[in-house]
């Protein structure tokens, strides 16, 4: 899957992932269904799914991937998780790579169950059934190797990928991640682990399907990690609403524009509320915002001697 993601990034000249952190409140009133016979959670979830489908149709030709943030579906209960599942199916059918942002982990046995849910198969009798069946999942590596191994096994078996939290984009990420142990920060040690965990998952472009999450808000830290780990593929959240800049993304990428994919959720989902896109329908505004992000990144790449071949 890592090779396909890289090929789609290059083909679309777009190292961008649109984040489907779809809150009911984001949906414009004139898009809401007039079908009021459902309970409130069903109503919210069914509108979220319709919104996602319209948005996916608007961006599928200009980005390689979407990231579906589970929190915004879990908050609507079972109906929300159905919308999560159906959104994954819809996005895959639209030709997109799907990252399930679930940040899962636990002790080995339980991590195996999580991995079956999001990447692998659930065994019932003789049948092995794909459940959410995303292409990538985000995971938390802080329980250590036994909590990650089941995900890595499913990456190998089903050609999937994971992104392990290394240096997160949030303000307080340094409280723990920047602490030093024997001369290295915790995030640097985590990056070492990620390389080790993914050593048998390296694809034809030299990047492993076991990648890292590094926030766009921490370019200096990204530079350090990149120097130590040239084969680490990075999911980069934090561009847009969190203030990460295109220039700050540069350390993650090699001169061919490879090495990462940049997520943007709220600034695309709610672009129609931005005066820059005033009067546009939400899907048209989302497309324009995505194209502007692409221009911003490609112009910055150009200034830094980075270009897709
Ligand atoms: O370090 C991290 C890890 C994950 N995220 C997630 O990415 C998106 C960012 O949303 P924006 O609206 O573009 O800020 C969201 O799903 C986060 O949970 C992150 O931001 N930082």
Automatic annotation (TrEMBL):
Domain of life: Bacteria
Pathway membership: Pyrimidine metabolism; UMP biosynthesis via de novo pathway; UMP from orotate: step 2/2
SUPFAM superfamilies: Ribulose-phoshate binding barrel (SSF51366)
Keywords: Decarboxylase, Lyase, Pyrimidine biosynthesis
CDD domains: OMP_decarboxylase_like
GO biological process, any: 'de novo' UMP biosynthetic process
EC class name: lyase
Active site: 103
GO molecular function, one term: orotidine-5'-phosphate decarboxylase activity
Domain Orotidine 5'-phosphate decarboxylase: 15-280
Protein's UniProt name: Orotidine 5'-phosphate decarboxylase
Organism: Christensenella hongkongensis
């Amino acid at each position: 899957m890592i090779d396909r993601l890289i090929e789609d990034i290059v083909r679309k000249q777009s190292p961008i992932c649109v984040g489907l952190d779809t809150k009911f409140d984001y949906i414009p009133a004139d898009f809401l269904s007039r079908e009021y016979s459902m309970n409130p959670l069903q109503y919210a979830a069914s509108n979220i799914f319709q919104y996602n489908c319209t948005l996916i149709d608007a961006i599928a030709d200009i980005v390689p991937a979407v990231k579906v943030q589970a929190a915004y579906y879990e908050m609507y209960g079972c109906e929300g998780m159905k919308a999560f599942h159906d959104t994954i199916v819809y996005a895959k059918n639209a030709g997109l790579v799907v990252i399930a942002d679930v940040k899962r982990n636990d002790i080995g046995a339980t991590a195996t169950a999580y991995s079956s849910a999001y990447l692998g198969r659930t065994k019932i009798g003789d049948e092995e059934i794909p459940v959410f069946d995303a292409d990538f999942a985000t995971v938390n590596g802080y329980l250590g190797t036994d909590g990650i191994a089941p995900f890595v096994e499913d990456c190998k078996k089903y050609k999937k990928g994971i992104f392990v939290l290394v240096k997160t984009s949030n303000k307080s990420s340094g409280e723990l991640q920047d602490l030093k142990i024997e001369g290295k920060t915790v995030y640097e040690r985590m990056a070492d682990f990620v390389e080790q965990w993914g050593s048998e998952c390296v694809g034809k472009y030299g990047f492993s399907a076991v990648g890292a999450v590094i926030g766009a808000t921490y370019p200096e830290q990204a530079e350090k990690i990149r120097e130590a780990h040239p084969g680490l593929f990075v999911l980069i959240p934090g561009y847009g609403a969190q203030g990460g800049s295109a220039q700050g993304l540069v350390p993650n990428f090699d001169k061919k524009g490879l090495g990462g994919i940049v997520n943007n959720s709220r600034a695309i989902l709610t672009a129609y509320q931005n005066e820059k896109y005033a009067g546009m329908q939400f899907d048209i505004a989302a497309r324009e915002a995505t194209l502007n992000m692409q221009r911003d990144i490609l112009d910055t790449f150009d200034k830094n001697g980075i270009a897709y071949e």
